[in-house]
Amino acid sequence: MSQAADAHDAPTSTGIDHKKLIMWLFLASDCMFFGTLISTHLLYRKLYPTGFTDAEGHQHFIQNLFNIELTSFSTFILLMSSFLMALAVSAMHKGEIKSFRRNVLGVIFFGLIFLGCQVFEFTHFYHQGLTIQNSVLGSTFYVLTGTHGTHVAIGVLWLVLLYFYSFTGKLGGHMGALDVEVAGLYWHFVDIVWIIIFTAVYLVEYLGPSGIWGSGLPAITK
Amino acid sequence: MSHDTHHAPVASKLDLAPERSDLGLIRPDRTTGWRDWLTTVDHKKIGVLYGAFAMMYFLIGGVEALAIRTQLIRPDNDFVTARMYNQLFTMHGTTMIFLGVMPLSAAFFNFLVPLQIGARDVAFPRLNAFSLWTFVFGAFVLNASWLFEFGHLAGWFNSFDWHKALVYTDFAPANGWFSYAPLSGTFGQADASLQAPRFTGVGTDFWIIGIQVLGIASLAASFNFICTIINMRAKGMTMMRLPVFTWMTLVTSFLIILAFPAITVALIELMFDRQFGANFFNPSAGGQPVLWQHLFWIFGHPEVYILVLPAMGIVSEILPTFSGKALFGYPIIVFSGAVIGFLGFAVWSHHMFTTGLGPVPTAAFALLTMAIAVPTGVKIFNWLGTLWGGRIRFTPPMVLALGFIWMFMCGGFSGVMHSSAPADSQQQDSYFVIAHFHYVLLGGVLLGLMAGLYFWFPKIFGRMPNATVAYLASGLVILGFNMAFGPMHYLGLAGMPRRTHTYHAGNGWESWNYVATIGAYILGAGVFLAFMNLVWTAFKGKKCASDPWGGRTMEWSLPSPVPEYNFAQSPIIAARDAYFEDKHGGRRIGFENDGGNAGVHMPSQSWMPLLAGAGFLFIGLGMPMMSMHVPHAGWLVITGLTVLFVGIWLWALEGPGGYMLKTPVAPSSSGQPAPAATTSAH
Amino acid sequence: MSEAAPSQDFLAEEVRRYHHFITLALWLAAITGAEIVLIFLPIPPMAVLTVLSLMSAGKFFAVILWFMHLIYDKKLLFWLFLTGLLLAFATFAAMIALFGVERIDTKWFA
């Protein structure tokens, strides 16, 4: 999985590996990326705090749609996957490839559970009448959480490839540990984005339709 | 490990034994000719390719500009239709910014940064090649819209069953380079195919995906350059010894990685509106079109500095060289560059004063905008301080660099006028704004980049451009430019709105429009002449010495053209302006002593960056074709995603490879040739 | 390439980190549990919001510092990431503040 030819021979000016540095730069950039998505969602919540109106003209409050038990469960799952990822990286540093495989399988499994929960949630919301087309809320909610889900899916794919790559015997030593650590950084970042989304998108809705933003405008029927 | 062949250094890569990658495929290390250029990971060749494509797109964007000026040469003209006019100014702006200035800056980043910091290459050579090819395919996708437009005009598509809402405006993008919603978005209700009615045709879809792909190219390149500058400096090359051009590359790269995500998300949202009936900017569902303006300018204002900072870096290298003095106030120049970059994120709403932000935000953004003039002014005074008392040589690069200072200042003065919100509401969307940003982007950035081309061409190709032609071209450019854009200040204040297809006689705009158009032709001739001189130089120019200007930074210490391994031995830097100090000061450049001729480690060439980048070609053509309801176009997108994934996957699996190149023994104080670079597989 | 066997100090350090990770995982779970309880308690919304924000920020920084090794790594990485994070926060807080119901013209709504 090595990418830089020079990455492992010359010592770097700062003592930080190129790959680790570029991943942190990417994550700094991704802060702006998710910042844009989350703020798009929040500012429309500010303007139209009441929720959305379905095809039959029924007003829905978003918190009646949410299933806080399910979301908390998937949040918990993602946090624990982050924990296992930290153990997988630690295992690679100690050169324990078997322990790495065990932990990374756990991460993949938890990641898939999270994605499963999201598919279930989307299906449920869709049947409740929230679609990407019928309201601004639907657009911002599905695109924000869907983009996060896409990040999770890419992470799962990455880890699956690393898992199988570890059987070729080429994933080892300092560079192997670095490759896993970089994948781990990505995974943890996806996790912390969810920490923010969980609070900013889900939990605050339980403080009432105008608890945070004031009265706002009525939801719009398209 | 299968890399034993590496350990014997070779004199030329053509002497290498055929070597297989970890995938079992033969590495294209020994290729020559076009295959060498397609698989290259050499930052110098990648820089040359960036430059060649950028100059081509400069000429295409210039032709579009001349068509615009020809249309406006007299009142009630009908040289082009209103529809074509919209497409021309949109593609002119988009082409010049994303396909002209940014890649030409990238050409300098690529060629110069590793040389200036004393490095072998960039941190991730294959990622660098991926950035290049992604840019090439993204640029092609954007311009492929013209092919569709011409096909449509020729009537080729008449037999298709078009969706009625799609074709009544355009195939090439036609909503201006910032594609404001709701014009670029949707209105009303989505139909069964999930597409809501829209104001513009598939040109906007080409624009969305084209900019998206170009953004990926810029982001990948910027991560790479930050990593290179922070992590690959030669020994002794502290941050405050970095050449100013490298500093400005670093600031620009930070601006790119922090500003582009905003436009990436905005484009995703607009794409969802258009392709899947979402409501981010759809006013009928409560979407706020003004959100597009915010997101666009959160990207767009830093983008202005992304365009201008590299040119400032170039000028900061040229002025000391031809004044025979060190740059005046180096730390202040660096600091003000960083402050410009930082403040650039805090002023986006000054593009939106007329949207009604409210008095407090308007005042705040006006003040911040005025504040940003301070570090810019500091730079100007530092450049003047560099010239002051210097022994000035008026070489072609110096003439262009001096033109930069003068023209950029004029653009800055009209810029400060815009920062006053009441004045801005008078100037908004008038030709005054056109005059302002062309003084900044053309009088500033283009002159700076041309100065850079004339300055470093002898280093890139080892040949000297014809000075007489260069002086003539510089004169034409500066004269034509002022003739074309000077009058636009007056036209704008006299009420001529921008983006008007034509105007009636009797508004008092006729004579200045006439002058502006003649000026544009002179400008076009000047740029064409300047570029042709460079193309001629690259192949036929007179050979020159390695340091023809008396350069100050590390790249001038190398032979011209620069050997593929850059430095035979890793240098040890003793001072700012290291090479000048080496020649004239007491502090010599040292070399790392490795105790033997192990050779220089070279990265292997690869097809994979090109393959991965090619995925964007399919995605880029497929998305707009989905909008056109071309049957099975979705499969084109899926093919593209697959090609992208497979390309990246194989790239990861093939392993970095690499080989050792013998280098001549450098006549250095240490007396030992070639730095050690032990090859290791993983 | 040959890797030297991990030294004893290094292993001891890894063991210490392992315990930190476990403690942190428990804390993360506990805070998440507290958050869920908190939203149903009869407390003024603004107070709840403040506490939720602090808890969320706490979890966020705990993960980047320990799981993502920032506390063990060079400080440069922390400052690079913090630049992106703070810039995103400041920019988008300002953008959300610029939107208000009083500036919306409802006559375009269908």
Structure description:
Chain A is an all-alpha fold. Chain A has six helices and two strands; from the N terminus they run αββααααα. Chain A has helices at residues 18-47, 62-65, 68-93, 97-127, 136-165, 173-202; strands spanning 52-53, 59-60. The longest helix of chain A has 31 residues, at 97-127. Chain A is elongated, with a radius of gyration of 20 Å. Mean pLDDT of chain A is 89; it is low at 1-8. In chain B, 60% of the residues lie in helices and 2% in strands. Chain B is built from 17 helices and six strands. Chain B has helices at 33-39, 43-71, 82-116, 125-153, 203-231, 244-276, 289-323, 330-343, 359-387, 396-419, 421-427, 431-461, 467-493, 510-540, 578-584, 608-627, 633-654, and strands at residues 463-464, 542-543, 571-572, 590-591, 600-602, 659-661. Chain B has a two-stranded antiparallel ribbon with strand order 1-2. Chain B has a two-stranded antiparallel ribbon with strand order 3-4. In chain B, helix 5 (203-231) runs antiparallel to helix 16 (608-627). Chain B is globular, with a radius of gyration of 26 Å. Chain B starts with 32 loop residues before the first helix and ends in a 21-residue tail after the last strand. Residues 1-5 and 667-682 of chain B have low confidence and may be disordered. Chain C has two domains: 9-68; 71-99. Chain C contains three helices and no strands. The longest helix of chain C is centred in the N-terminal third of the chain and has 31 residues, at 8-38. Chains in contact: A-B, A-C, B-C. Chains A and B meet through helix 1, helix 5 and helix 6 of A and helix 4, helix 5, helix 6, helix 7 and helix 17 of B.
